[in-house]
Specification:
By secondary structure, this protein is of the alpha+beta class. The chain contains 17 helices and 5 strands. A hairpin with a 4-residue loop joins strand 2 (230-235) and strand 3 (240-246). The protein is flat, with a radius of gyration of 24 Å. 40% of the residues are buried. Residues 178-290 form the CdaR GGDEF-like domain.
């Protein structure tokens, strides 16, 4: 029976949709834990889902191999999540509460997968018992280590030079009332001016891990290109900074092309005035960051709000965007080579105002090929383009994001394509 249990554990673990499970855990945690719930902060929700995914992967790997939970190491992504909680002053109690939520959901998913197997009842019972033991053991170990990590990070953060300014920035962004002049003096940055906000982060898909100073320098370089003189930069985790710049030369139409060195990426908000503008431009930069991730922009890209505003609006609710694309495109939304080819042709066809000649030139194919593909797409969609061109074009653009049109899929897409050591504490 030992071999049946061993084989069964591996098969059960492999059958779990880790991204979907992580999304359920992360969304549930952000919904029920008040400290994590901020309807305007999609970054924190996504970071929580990414931390959940790293734990789900660790649990499935450990349970699938019937290892002892004492051998598991807390994933680096989760350590980064805890560092963000510490920097934002979110209470340490959120950590064990997240693990209790994760334990309950994981246990239910594993038990369901176990009892759907064709196996003797004794084997199922043993698998369920092993799964519960592993989950409880892992949660006890991980949550205990993370609480210790949080306390160390919080102590370091409070003593650090950036902490006071970051706390003031968080107060402004959360909508708490602040004294404009006193806060400007404390920040060393005049809030009663037009600002452009920036976010600079390290591409999580990259093996390089630039130091915080590299992110700050990149923010200063972008500010210089924008014509900024004053600059405020605060850390927002181990691999991201938030920044604002102002100055008399800053305009509403920044340079069209700004690049930074990979593996860094950046998003730039619009020109907005005063304290409210400080918050609004930052929101726009956040939208740009999310859009860059959803559409898998290359490292070194700087996303401008004016260029991604529509895409940001379309992807504000990833699940709704995914459902819209699926309902609008039907079979054409499937992830097959044929569907991808037809979608690409149809999107270029719309962009070229339904010109067969210009579409063929852009795609580098014969005009007859374009006509054949467009006809195939029409047959699949079962509708005329005349009445639903706008809806179809939006759906085609969304379909380009593929699996990223869900928080769990986006978490998976942000992982590097090579093995990353599981750094312990």
């Amino acid at each position: 029976m030992a071999q049946e249990v061993s084989d069964g554990a591996a098969e059960v673990a492999a059958s779990v949709d880790e991204a979907e499970l992580a999304e359920r855990i992360g969304v549930r945690a952000v919904t029920v834990i008040a400290d994590l719930h901020d309807a305007n902060d999609k970054d924190l929700e996504q970071l929580t889902i990414e931390a959940a995914l790293s734990n789900v992967q660790t649990v499935m790997r450990g349970f699938g191999a019937l290892e002892s939970p004492s051998e598991a190491q807390v994933p680096k992504v989760t350590l980064n999540w805890v560092s963000v909680l510490a920097q934002r002053g979110i209470t340490v109690a959120a950590i064990p509460r997240c693990y209790v939520i994760g334990l309950g959901i994981c246990d239910a998913v594993l038990r369901d997968a176990i009892y759907r197997r064709q196996a003797p009842e004794e084997v199922k019972w043993q698998l369920a018992s092993s799964a519960s033991q592993y989950l409880f053991g892992y949660c006890e170990k991980a949550s205990g280590e993370l609480v210790d990590h949080y306390q160390r990070e919080r102590e370091l953060w409070v003593r650090g030079a950036d902490s006071v300014r970051a706390e003031l920035v968080l107060a402004i962004l959360s909508g708490r009332p602040v004294d404009l002049h006193a806060t400007s003096a404390a920040l060393g940055y005049n809030l009663d001016r037009p600002h452009i906000a920036m976010i600079v982060w390290s591409d999580p898909r990259s093996p390089d891990n630039p130091p915080l100073q590299a992110l700050k320098r990149a923010a200063a370089e972008i500010a210089h290109r924008l014509g900024g003189i004053e600059l405020l930069v605060v850390p927002a985790g181990e691999a991201m900074v938030w920044a604002w710049t102002s100055g008399p030369a800053i305009g509403a139409h920044p340079p069209p092309h700004i690049d930074i060195d990979a593996p860094l990426m950046a998003a730039v908000g619009g020109l907005c005035h005063g304290l409210e503008g400080f918050v609004e431009s930052h929101r726009q930069a956040r939208d740009g960051r999310r859009t860059s991730r959803v559409f898998s922009q290359r490292a070194g890209t700087v996303a401008h709000h004016r260029d991604v505003a529509l895409a940001a609006l379309m992807t504000h609710d990833l699940s709704a965007a995914r459902q819209f694309a699926k309902e609008e495109l039907g079979e054409l939304s499937s992830d097959t080579e044929r569907s991808r080819r037809l979608r690409e042709t149809l999107l270029v066809f719309f962009e070229e105002n339904m010109s067969w000649v210009r579409t063929a030139e852009r795609l580098g194919v014969h005009q007859n090929t374009v006509m054949y593909r467009v006809q195939q797409a029409k047959e699949i969609l079962g509708c005329s383009f005349d009445g639903r061109r706008l809806e179809l074009e939006v759906a085609l653009r969304l379909a380009n994001a593929g699996a990223n049109l869900s928080p769990g899929g986006l978490a998976s897409a942000g992982q590097p394509d090579w093995p990353v050591p599981q750094d312990g504490l």
